[in-house]
Every structure is written in structure tokens, then in C-alpha cells.
Amino acid sequence: MHRFARSLALLAPLLVGCDSSPPPPASTSVPVAQPAQLAGVAPGAPSAEPRTLEWDDLMPADFDPGTPFEGIDVSTLNDDDPRAREMLAKLRKLWDEAPVVAALDGARVRLPGFAVPLETDGQTATRFLLVPYIGACIHVPPPPLNQTVLVEAPTGASVRGVFDPVWVTGQLTIQRATTELANAGYTLNATEVKPYGGKQP
């Protein structure tokens, strides 16, 4: 189970039960981690073989989205408990300031995820969010900034519904984007979008 999934499981009662407060204002910059160059990742030309990423690869190794809440049983908090609302506000601020991985800037990558269309005609989408789990941005608060990717697909991608599972290939950049549903820490300029078939295409 990847790091964010573990945190999500821990914080599920807080996220589902206490989501009526407004999100904090978006910050103006994205914190950028400066780890050593990731193996196999280079800001290559479009012809370079894409590296298949996992969602953990988008988070710096020392970033844990659930750290402030370790040892706290959020299931004991009621929806109207001021402590729950305070914790949710802290969580949203932490996630909205989540650092990205500098070594991925300009890399040609392939990433699986669930599509949340932003611009679509019901059959194809030219712009959508890619998120790591079903429900993100719609039924529960958006994931951390470094777990939300804006996909630009100018020629259109076959995305027919919310949370279609897909593989997206293209050039990843550290370019923050603000949308009506969520903020994204990365932008992926897609050259190919394919249905997810359980393994890389």
C-alpha cells in the first residue's frame, strides 16, 4: 500500500465526515524537493522512452501526508466537534502546500490513475485531473498537491465518465494549476491516453 493510501485510510473518518468548511486560499508557489536525480528519469526529448511512475514517485521520500495525525484516533471525533474541524483545516493546509519532486520536471513519463474531466463533450476530454483513487475531488476533499496531476490533452482523450481508469503518457512539468475542483502540483502534457488494463500499455 503506498504512503498516501495509508494516510487516507487513517484519516477517512475525518475526510468524509467533516468536509463542510471552505478550503484554504491557494498558495502562490509550489514547494519543490531537491532529492538526488531519480534513476531512469531525465528531462528527455519526446522520443525518449517514458518512465512508468507510481504515485509514491510524485512525493519526496521524507513527505508523509498523515504525519500530524499519527497516534490520533479521528474516529472518536464527531462531525460537529471543533477539534475535528481544526484538524481538517490543518490537513488541508498541509496538503495544499505539499512539496513536489524537482527531478521529475521535464521528464517523459507514464502514469496510471483515475480521470476527473474538466473540459469534455461526454466522449472525449481535452483537460482533466488525474488522481490516485476513486472519489477524489468529488466525494471527498482533493488529495495533496503532489498527488493531483492536471492533464492537458489538446487533441482529445477518450474519457467518457468521472473516474475512468487510464494510463497517461507525456511530459511532466512542475507547474501548479488551479481548477474548479482541485489544485494540482504537476501538469502532464499528454501524448497518449489509454484505458487502464491492469498493466502498463
**Main beta-sheet annotation:** 5 strands, mixed, barrel
Question: Whole-number radius of gyration?
Answer: 17 Å
| Overall 3D form | globular
Instruction: Kindly name the structural category.
Output: alpha/beta
Helix content: 10-25%
Query: How far apart, in Å, are the first and last alpha carbons?
Result: 22 Å
Number of helices: 2
What is the number of beta strands? 10
Q: Which stretches are low in confidence, meaning pLDDT under 50 for 5 or more residues running?
A: 17-45
Record the strand order, biggest sheet.
4-5-6-10-7
Range of strand content: 25-35%
What is the arithmetic mean of pLDDT? 79
What is the string of helix and strand elements?
HEEHEEEEEEEE
What does this structure look like?
The strands form three sheets. Strands 4-5-6-10-7 form a five-stranded mixed barrel. The chain has a two-stranded parallel sheet with strand order 1-3. Helices cover 15% and strands 30% of the residues. A hairpin with a 3-residue loop joins strand 4 (108-120) and strand 5. With 201 residues, it is an alpha/beta fold. The protein has two helices and ten strands. The protein starts with a helix and ends in a 6-residue tail after the last strand.
